[in-house]
Amino acid sequence: MVTGQRGRPRSFDRGAALDEAMRAFWERGYEATSIADLTKAMGIGAPSLYAAFGDKRKLFGEVVVVYGSRYGDFAAVALAEEPTARAAVERIMREAAEIYADPAHPPGCLVISAAVNCTTEEVAEELRRRRAENLTAFETRIRADITTGTLPSDTDAPALARYYGAVLQGMSQQSRDGATREELTAVAELALAAWPA
To answer: Looking at the UniProt feature table, which residue ranges are given for the DNA-binding region (predicted)?
Structure first.
């Protein structure tokens, strides 16, 4: 009797396949990316995709984690490293202009663009949750500066956080429409002028 692993071992690089899936979702969005699109991009058959990743939704969940660790964590890093909310937001806006327009990968932010026309409620909800967490992180940092007197006591922390979140979302879409790094940087500079004195 022969024992051991049943079936054939995987004959593809899981990390490379995830990279290709990320690119497909980033370019097309969640809903518009079919299993056929994914298998073609990843260079594997549908049975291999299902065996390795479960299904499209689970694959997308893994893709979002990879995206976050590679491209999407710049805001969290800036909020943790900069001495003030203003310095953090300035860094975030400038880095967003650079990352969103980088020709080495699809334009914009995957978490923003993948949500467009998404009718799969659990995926849409997960993307909303991630965006809400970003707004909460902005607001928390702004409130800390209000507490220390770095920002005026009458600063509307939720509105200010939402404003910069909206600008970032707009910059993502503008980059998908062809805006250059220089053009996005100009938008960022104008937005920074709205920071409370």
So the answer is: 34-53
